[in-house]
Design goal:
Blueprint (H helix, E strand, L loop, with lengths): L8 H6 L1 E5 L14 E15 L5 E7 L4 E2 L13 E14 H10 L1 H27 L2 H12 L4 E2 L3 H8 L3 H13 L3 E4 L3 E4 L2 H8 L2
Antiparallel strand pairs: 1-5, 2-3, 2-4, 2-5, 6-8, 7-8
Length: 205
């Protein structure tokens, strides 16, 4: 998700650096939110496991994204399943202290209001994209958004669930990207982006 409003310096001053390793959870499921997190690097997926055995991935969060910010303005009924896909470095904030800062500082409050509004628009646009754009365009955009220093490593199973397409379809498009020398598959790392400009051209079709 692209969010252009710069984080207020007063927020950066109050955050404490923290690291979560790949495979760990940032929040415990069914627990209350006590802290909010501003991601500096890495990737987290948020998902729901349904009673019928199926899974829905709600979103992926990376650099410059927040986790837990909704709890500043409303009571979240329950914590969703979450998993760190790539080691996360972040700033940790006490929720109560951050809530107090929002009440006292209009700039901070407006920053969060803008961020949440942007998140809502981004999710609405993603739903529209799924109905109107082919998978190669959507996947090119996704790879660009979630690459880390030129390396993309989100599992195909997660992408297929997120985009509501088959695993085979994702695999087919990724294979095409490799044949076009846009991506290079590297064992143990995922995919190295060999030609970012070609990928951007597909995204902008």
């Amino acid at each position: 998700m692209i969010f252009n409003n710069e984080i207020p310096s007063i927020l950066l001053e109050n955050g404490m650096k923290k690291t979560f390793n790949e495979g760990s959870n940032i929040y415990k499921v069914n627990s209350s939110v006590t802290h909010c997190y501003f991601i500096l690097s890495g990737t987290v997926k948020i998902y729901i496991d349904h009673k019928n055995g199926r899974r829905s991935i709600l979103d992926f969060f990376g650099s410059n994204d927040w986790l837990g910010e909704l709890s500043l303005f409303c009571n979240e009924a329950e914590i969703k399943e979450n998993k760190v896909l790539q080691d996360v470095e972040c700033l940790e904030f006490d929720k109560d202290e951050l809530q107090k800062l929002c009440k006292e500082n209009a700039k901070v409050s407006f920053y969060f209001a803008s961020y949440i509004a942007n998140k809502l628009l981004a999710r609405s646009y993603r739903m529209s994209e799924s109905l109107n754009y082919s998978l190669d365009i959507r996947l090119a955009s996704f790879v660009i958004q979630h690459q880390q220093k030129g390396i993309y490593s989100i599992p195909h199973t997660d992408v297929s669930e997120y985009m509501n397409v088959s695993y085979r379809h994702v695999l087919y498009v990724m294979k095409q990207f490799c044949e076009l020398e846009i991506l290079t598959k590297e064992k143990g790392k995922g995919y190295i982006i060999s030609d970012i400009e070609k990928l951007k051209r597909i995204q902008d079709k």
